[in-house]
Amino acid sequence: MAGGVPIYDIGALSVRCNTRIIADSQPEFAVHTFSDLPTPHAVPRSSTFLRLKKKLERSVGEAIADFNMIEDGDTVMVCVSGGKDSFSLLSILLALRERAPVDFRIVAMNLDQKQPGFPDDVLPAHFAALGVEYRIVTEDTYAIVKDKIPAGKTSCSLCSRLRRGIIYRTASEIGATKIALGHHRDDMIETLFLNLFFGGRIKSMPPKLVSDDGQHVVIRPLAYCVEKDLARFARAMAYPIIPCNLCGSQENAQRRQIKHMLNAWADAHPGRIESIFTAMKNVVPSHLLDEKLFDFKKLTKEVAVAEGDVAFDPPDFDDPVGAPQAVISMVRGH
């Protein structure tokens, strides 16, 4: 297809260190160590796994199509941390590229930050076995972080800023037109509540953004993927997961609180998390208070406002627009 046409069934990967494998009640997926890792092409063939794989591929494809993430001729630099998300999406991206309607180049990129115990042979071997083009960048950001952050304090923020600068530089060096990160649906919802509770902002992670200097386009094709599905996929594929705690830093306490809250909601109120995510795609600026999004001062009787009079009415959730069936059943009490 011609340039500018979006890809409808491809994906991308992760720059994050979050490799926590979520507990799953289904025992069909075993955890493997580096030594018994199968070849990257030894894909499980069970019907359960194939349904999961198809679900993830469809979710990635829908996100890419909805936000026009990847186009003909793109060079996509896929940031691979060694966590469950980046391993999973590399496999999915390569599989989907085989049937994508446009041509694009994939370059897997890993940043070796010289953290103690980091197995620097694992990712090069994995990339080579896949036959994917890759770039390993070695930068001792670990020493910088340890020098600047007091012992016992969370270093994720500084580490993230250092990592971002290196990623942007590397993207320029290889001529990448897109930088693909692996934040998923759960990350986006957690970030929404972090900003709401602790930052006084209604803000999450965008599925697509342009860097502050205008030089790079960052995409998050996992935006529609559920973390639990990615964890199950990674276990089935027996990836050599690299721990995210090699640096010794602990997960941000505020994010940990949000995770706990959302997990409790998901258990107690099926469909609530799905409804929250649907709400992130259905924002009505005229019914909030942000003058940057809606010009209330210029509002007159002659200006039509979407859902205008509804502001006077109690919300009617008998049949919420875009809400999952589980949510509709919940609010109806059955």
CATH class of the largest domain: Alpha Beta
Beta content comes to: 5-15%
Amino-to-carboxy terminus distance = 48 Å
Quaternary state reads single chain
CATH architecture of the largest domain: 3-Layer(aba) Sandwich
CATH topology of the largest domain, which one?
Rossmann fold
Radius of gyration: 21 Å
Mean pLDDT: 81
Unreliable sequence segments: 1-39
Strand order of the largest sheet: 3-2-1-4-6-5
Query: Percent helix among the residues?
Result: 25-40%
Number of strands: 6
- The number of helical segments is 10
Q: CATH H level of the largest domain: which superfamily?
A: HUPs
The helix/strand class is: alpha/beta
N to C succession of SSEs: HEHEHEHHEHEEHHHH
For the sheet with most strands, the description reads:
6 strands, mixed
Describe this structure as you would to a colleague.
It is a single chain. The chain is an alpha/beta fold. It has 2 domains: 34-264, HUPs (Rossmann fold), CATH 3.40.50.620; 270-332, no CATH class. The protein has helices at residues 47-67, 84-97, 122-130, 141-148, 156-174, 185-199, 227-237, 253-268, 272-279, 325-332; strands at residues 75-79, 105-112, 133-138, 178-180, 208-210, 217-219. It has a 6-stranded mixed β-sheet, with helices on both faces. β1 (75-79), α2 and β2 (105-112) form a beta-alpha-beta unit. α1 (47-67) packs across α7, α2 packs across α7 and α6 (185-199) packs across α8. The radius of gyration is 21 Å and the shape is globular. It starts with 46 loop residues before the first helix and ends with a helix. 31% of the residues are buried.
